[in-house]
Write a structure and sequence with these properties.
The protein has 266 residues and is an alpha+beta fold. The protein contains eight helices and eleven strands. The strands form two sheets. Strands 4-9-11-10-6-7-5-8 form an eight-stranded antiparallel beta sheet. Helix 1 crosses helix 2. The longest helix is centred in the middle third of the chain and has 39 residues. The protein is rod-shaped and about 100 Å long. It starts with a strand and ends with a strand. The model has no long low-confidence stretch (mean pLDDT 89).
């Protein structure tokens, strides 16, 4: 068995670069001897240390942690190191699982957006829906995004925008009845801990694809359908952005759902 390995030999044995071995030496993880000609000579002791270093780096253990561990290498420190790494891995797994749930919710919202019945009115019962909201009028899409960002301050870790089908705006019913179909009075984002709520009740719904300038055509259709069913507005007119600029740059892909809370006309 070889007693010493040169840097190139050890690098080849482990499939790493000589520069990495020199880096480990610089950080105090490996301590090769120097031969008379100045070449590094790695002992068998350095080989087992490199085994440990390699395996711990696979676990993403920081280099400085490995150095301290090798300087105080015992059964007790090995057990403690593994317990610490297990706790770290459990935290990373929990984080990845949370990210996966978020991505799945976004995928589900895209699926709902593109399977919604379009340009046909239908009634739907909704329970009370909690939300964060801002009663701040605006006119253009460019003015809406900063308002949504303000809402995210309530829960920045979980209130995402991309792919969220619980984002929308309040439309003035009075304005809509007068033909002003893009008179926005505020914004909201659904959230179980919201300080506001969208009241429970029967909502007359109408989905469409394309830019929201189509409100001029479709809001009157929704109001006319309510009258035809002998229903009257009983709450706000809601505009949900099921798929918007955050989903596609092409507004032909955008999907909007109008929801009007209604009650029997008197």
């Amino acid at each position: 068995m070889k007693r010493y390995y040169r840097v190139g030999e050890l690098a080849k044995l482990y499939g790493v670069s000589p520069d990495l071995l020199r880096y480990y030496e610089e950080k105090g993880l490996l301590c090769p001897q120097r031969q008379e000609n100045g070449y590094r000579a790695y002992r068998v002791q350095d080989v087992w240390r490199l085994n440990v270093i390699r395996d711990l780096r696979v676990l993403d253990v920081p280099v400085e942690t490995i150095r301290r561990y090798l300087d105080s290498h015992s059964a007790a420190t090995t057990r403690q190191l593994l317990q610490d790494e297990l706790a770290l891995l459990d935290g990373q797994i929990a984080h990845l699982q949370a990210l996966r749930r978020t991505v799945q919710r976004r995928l589900d919202s895209c699926t709902r957006a593109f399977t919604l019945p379009l340009e046909q009115c239908f009634a739907q019962e909704f329970p009370a829906r909690r939300c964060h909201s801002l009663a701040r009028p605006y006119r253009t899409d460019a003015e809406m995004d900063p308002l949504i960002q303000e809402l995210r301050r309530f829960d920045p870790e979980h209130l995402y925008v991309w792919g969220n089908d619980g984002i929308g705006s309040y439309l003035s019913v009075e304005g809509a009845l007068a033909g002003r179909c893009q008179e926005y009075t505020g914004v909201f984002i659904l959230h179980p801990g919201g300080e506001s709520r969208l009241d429970a009740g029967t909502y007359l719904c109408l989905g469409y694809r394309g830019p929201n300038t189509r409100n001029a055509e479709l809001v009157p259709r929704l109001l006319a359908e309510a009258r035809a069913r002998d229903l009257a507005p009983a709450g706000p007119l809601l505009e949900f952005l099921l798929a918007d600029i955050h989903t596609s740059a092409d507004d032909a892909d955008h999907v909007t759902e109008l929801q009007l809370r209604v009650a029997p006309a008197r």
